[in-house]
Amino acid sequence: MIAVLDSPKITPDELLQRPDHDRYELVNGELVEKNMGWQSSRIGAKLLVLLGAYVEQQGLGWVNGPDASYQCFEEALPDDPNRIRKPDVSFISLDRLPPEDEPVGYCEIVPDLAVEVVSPNDMVYELSEKVEEYLKAGVKLIWIVVPKTKTVRIYRANGSIDELHETQELSGEEVVPGFRCRVSEMFRTPSKKTP
Fold it and tell me: Alpha-carbon distance 146 to 126, whole Å?
């Protein structure tokens, strides 16, 4: 579950100065703890490895994990321009973010792809809110990975929505050209090799 902590409003700079800043998002000036369960974290890491290896091999751009912070909602959310979100996995094309412009703190460039892996305590309305924020900010492709049903819900900037099941193939479409993996690959658990 994402819990709002009882604290005074803070700024993005104040959040960065906290030793535990990697555990929080910032919504309306309030800290929102981002909790991931074991399974959700493992699935996010698996996708991070799959997508990261492909993107690096192809020289397409940047892939980041759940600690990467985005402060890119100023136009999309004028009532909360300091909002900070941390997708579980994200991708930005090198065409939009060249190496010499790599951010040090928050990234103010909207990711091309944002991925959220549903954790046991995530609320439906919270995920829906994030999807809407990402779309308003200009994210082209959003994957909501659901461990319980072993599905991936895909949201696109054009408003179309699809849901993929284990036997189907997930594609980076035009956002991460050429990336493909079977949905089941994200959910596969480790197995011992026999000698």
Answer: 14
Q: Tens digits of per-residue pLDDT, 48-100?
A: 999 999 999 999 999 999 999 999 998 888 889 899 999 999 999 999 999 99
**What does the alpha-carbon distance between residue 99 and residue 34 come to, in Å, rounded to a whole number?**
28
User: Is 84:72 a contact under the CB 8 Å cutoff?
Assistant: no
Tell me what the mean pLDDT of segment 123-131 comes to: 89
Distance, CA of 28 to CA of 31 (rounded, Å): 9
pTM, rounded to two decimals: 0.91
Structure tokens at 104: 């040090």
With contact defined as beta carbons under 8 Å apart, do 143 and 152 qualify?
Answer: yes
What mean pLDDT do residues 95-114 have?
A: 96
Q: Is residue 185 pLDDT above 70, yes or no? A: yes
Question: Which residues are CB-contacts of 11 (< 8 A; sequence separation ≥ 6)?
Answer: 29, 82
Complete domains list, the chain, with CATH: 36-187 (3.90.1570.10)
Of 89, 88, 96, which Cα lies nearest the Cα of 60? Answer: 96
Contacts 24+ apart (CB under 8 A), 55-62: 55/91, 55/176, 55/179, 58/177, 58/178, 59/94, 60/91, 60/93, 60/94, 60/176, 60/177, 61/91, 61/92, 61/93, 61/94, 61/95, 61/96, 61/97, 61/112, 62/91, 62/92, 62/94, 62/97, 62/102
